[in-house]
DNA sequence: CTGGGGATGGGGCCC
DNA sequence: TGGGCCCCATCCCCA
């Protein structure tokens, strides 16, 4: 790190979003800091306005969050939602706080209706598709038309459905037209608050009209929560609470970015004026376009690097410059964890279609890459390439310290990282400029590595360009189902990071270098693919070692 | 620790 | 401009 640019380095904490949501959920369960209570037919659900406003257009409008008034709400303490079945409301709350929709199959329609009423578009879309599409949600029959499925099968199917949804943009507007009972509508900036439709007295809670000062009057709310005792007990109005059997457990991978189609063709956050349902998804989906613009503006961030004519785009999350038209959506899936391409045979999902196609070879038995020297066949071309080196006996990658040779570069890197060769080495090659000066063995001589450039590049800049490893492997960074919870943080990043770092392309690169993920967990991830750069790092490492030993 | 297979993400080329 | 396809670099996992 150069000490010169302090305070502008973006250090992502990928787990933060997970923990944040988890803690919010804990708070909800314990009633802590809950400033909003939802009621449905007697059941009460303590919750947080901010969370509800984040997932529900209805609440966003209700609290005036979209009007840019930072006051954060109209002061509602209780919101009566009798139009949403308790089970459905419970499921939707669970979704809001865990990004996982767990509902009985029989309750799908109720959840759909609730999602529509509350403007939780991604849930509504998913339910509609599961129920048989057509957007009318009247189709439990459609759902029954399907053959019986096991839970796993359904989960798989839901994943496909979500994929379809993610690609569907026009339906959103159609959904917006769905009529809503009880006056309130996500389309209506004036929601039917408990004060605006005649029911305030029906609850012991006091409901405040939207024109009231923003104070939620917690002194009234919290005692109620206290009366509730364990809010969770309230939240469980007859919910069958296992993930097995007939329950449908939808581990949504991309709750808020779910509607961001991989094609990134949308600018809905602008042209829709946030009027669409689930527009936080739209907002999130807006960043690629803005990034594209910014990417064009900062396409020279790579300095003198050779660039293809295609406009590079900058990832709003990791700031990485993505080259190639249409590659940014692909890259974004590494952040969202979205894996739209699913193997029909085994259900394994992939972020990319081409990877799925390769995967399918495992099922078809196709191994198109055949060794000409032996019967070995391979799925990947590079496997064959590696394999051929065995026949040739070539070991072009040699450790500069112990001179052990490897057939594969990554094995050499691994060898180097382990420092297993330190005891064996007899001399230390020096990096380029010093070669020969101290009579040391020329570093290039034992190596078949490409000659490194004569200029020793600052590491901070060089490694920045090789963030593939660091941003790679979202499944590693966010194993299991928790990756979905990132979306909240990703949205914030998408909106904040570009502005914060817009003028500092070098820091973009540095941010890449520092971002979480596998790289940060490693001593030296080999963030660059360039053998020359890699070699530079090695030389740098060796120099460091020399300094240490010399002292 | 090493060899090998497989997975993942980025870039190039092309349509 | 987006997406398909391919190749490459890198990483993970297992024997």
Automatic annotation (TrEMBL):
Keywords: Metal-binding, Repeat, Zinc, Zinc-finger. Residues 541-551 have a biased composition (Acidic residues). One of its GO terms (molecular function) is zinc ion binding. Residues 193-204 have a biased composition (Low complexity). Pfam families: BTB, zf-C2H2. Residues 134-154, 169-244, 258-277, 283-313, 417-451, 513-551 are annotated as: Disordered. This is Zinc finger and BTB domain containing 7B. It comes from Xiphophorus maculatus.
């Amino acid at each position: 790190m150069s000490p010169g640019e302090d305070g502008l380095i973006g250090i992502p904490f990928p787990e933060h979003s997970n923990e944040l949501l988890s803690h919010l959920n804990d708070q909800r369960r314990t009633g802590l800091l809950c400033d909003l209570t939802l009621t449905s037919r007697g059941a009460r659900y303590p919750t947080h306005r901010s969370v509800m406003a984040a997932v529900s257009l209805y609440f966003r409008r209700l609290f005036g969050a979209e009007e840019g008034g930072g006051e954060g709400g109209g002061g509602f303490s209780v919101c009566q939602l009798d139009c949403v079945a308790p089970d459905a409301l419970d499921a939707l709350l669970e979704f809001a706080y865990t990004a996982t929709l767990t509902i009985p199959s029989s309750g799908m329609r109720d959840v759909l209706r609730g999602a529509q009423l509350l403007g939780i578009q991604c849930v509504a879309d998913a339910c509609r598709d599961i129920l048989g599409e057509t957007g009318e949600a009247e189709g439990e029959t459609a759902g029954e038309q399907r053959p019986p499925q096991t839970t796993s099968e359904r989960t798989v199917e839901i994943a496909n459905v979500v994929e379809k949804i993610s690609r569907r943009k026009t339906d959103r507007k159609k959904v917006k037209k769905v009529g809503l009972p009880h006056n309130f509508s996500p389309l209506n900036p004036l929601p039917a608050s408990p004060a605006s439709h005649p029911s305030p007295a029906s609850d012991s809670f006091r409901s405040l009209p939207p024109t009231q000062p923003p104070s939620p009057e917690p002194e009234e709310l919290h005692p109620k929560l206290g009366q509730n005792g364990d809010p969770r007990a309230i939240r469980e109005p007859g919910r069958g609470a296992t993930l097995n059997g007939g329950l449908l457990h939808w581990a949504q991978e991309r709750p808020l970015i779910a509607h961001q189609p991989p094609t990134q063709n949308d600018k809905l956050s602008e042209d829709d004026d946030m009027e669409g349902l689930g527009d936080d998804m739209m907002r999130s989906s807006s960043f690629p376009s803005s990034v594209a613009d910014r990417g064009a503006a900062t396409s020279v961030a790579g300095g003198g690097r050779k660039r293809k004519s295609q406009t590079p785009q900058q990832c709003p999350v990791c700031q990485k410059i993505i080259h190639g038209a249409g590659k940014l959506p692909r890259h974004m899936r590494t952040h969202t964890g979205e894996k739209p391409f699913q193997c029909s045979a085994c259900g394994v999902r992939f972020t990319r279609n081409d990877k799925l196609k390769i995967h399918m070879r495992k099922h078809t038995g196709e191994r198109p890459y055949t060794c000409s020297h032996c019967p070995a066949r391979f799925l990947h071309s590079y496997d064959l390439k590696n394999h051929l080196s065995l026949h040739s006996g070539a070991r072009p990658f040699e450790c500069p310290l112990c001179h052990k040779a490897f057939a594969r570069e990554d094995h050499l890197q691994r060898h180097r990282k382990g420092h297993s060769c330190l005891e064996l080495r007899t001399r230390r090659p020096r990096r380029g400029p010093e070669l020969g000066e101290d009579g040391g063995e020329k570093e290039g001589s034992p190596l078949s590595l490409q000659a490194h450039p004569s200029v020793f590049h600052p590491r901070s800049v060089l490694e920045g360009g090789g963030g593939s490893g660091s941003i790679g492997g979202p499944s590693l960074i966010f194993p299991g189902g928790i990756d979905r919870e990132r979306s909240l943080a990703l949205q914030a990043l998408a909106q904040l990071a570009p502005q914060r770092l817009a003028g500092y392309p070098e820091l973009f690169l540095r941010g890449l270098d520092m971002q979480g993920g596998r790289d940060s967990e490693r001593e030296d991830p080999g963030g660059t693919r360039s053998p020359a750069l890699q070699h530079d790092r090695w030389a740098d490492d060796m120099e460091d070692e020399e300094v240490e030993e010399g002292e």
